[in-house]
Structure formats: C-alpha cells, structure tokens
Fold:
Amino acid sequence: MKYVVLIYGNPDSRAAWEGMSDDQRAAGLAHYRQLNDDLDASGERIVSERLAFPELTTRVSVGDRGTMTTDGPFAEAKEFLAGFYLLDCESHERAVEIAARIPEAAFGVVEVRPVMGLHGPEL
Structure:
C-alpha cells in the first residue's frame, strides 16, 4: 500500500537548522542519505523531496477574474510543508516506523497518510 509521509517545519525547526554548523548540517543530510539508501534497498521509497522555504511559495487560485497568484511568505502559517516521502510499504505501522526515523519528528510534525489514488473511495 502507498503512503505519503509529510514533513512539516516550524520556526523552531528552522532556527535549529540555521543554528547548526556546517558539520552538523552535513551529518543531518547524511542521516537522510542513509534513510533513503535503506528504503531504496527495501524497495519502499518511491520518491522523496525536500521543499524550498515558504518565501518561495506561490499560492494559486482561480475565480471569475481568472488565475490569481500570491507569493509567500505567509505570516499566518506557523508550520510549513518542508518535504515528503512517497512510500510503498506493507502496513500503516511500517509507514509510521519509517516516519519516526525522520529527524524533523523531534522538532515539528511528521504525518503519515494513505494514498487513495483516483479510482474510487477505497484505500
């Protein structure tokens, strides 16, 4: 079954990242490389990506006047989507186990959601 793991950042996690030395950042990125290697070896990682900070976000809406865009940052947002993993694993419990290995779980919020697809309401 497919699951998406959503990784959220917040001002505390961002401050922690910005306060790290180059060596600490390299160690953090090495942790992700190891996680990716482990998930690739088990065949569970479909794709994962790190997302840019909210300052580079553009919101899009479509109404009677056509397409409207608003560039970030968005001050009301205390949490922001920082990255994601799309997994194919045996169970929800396994997806949660993988999510717990993501360092942001200690600073922010990491969510696990089943992927529903476009073929009906069933999971």
In short: The chain is about 30% helix and 35% strand. The chain has a mean pLDDT of 90. The two ends are 8 Å apart (CA to CA).
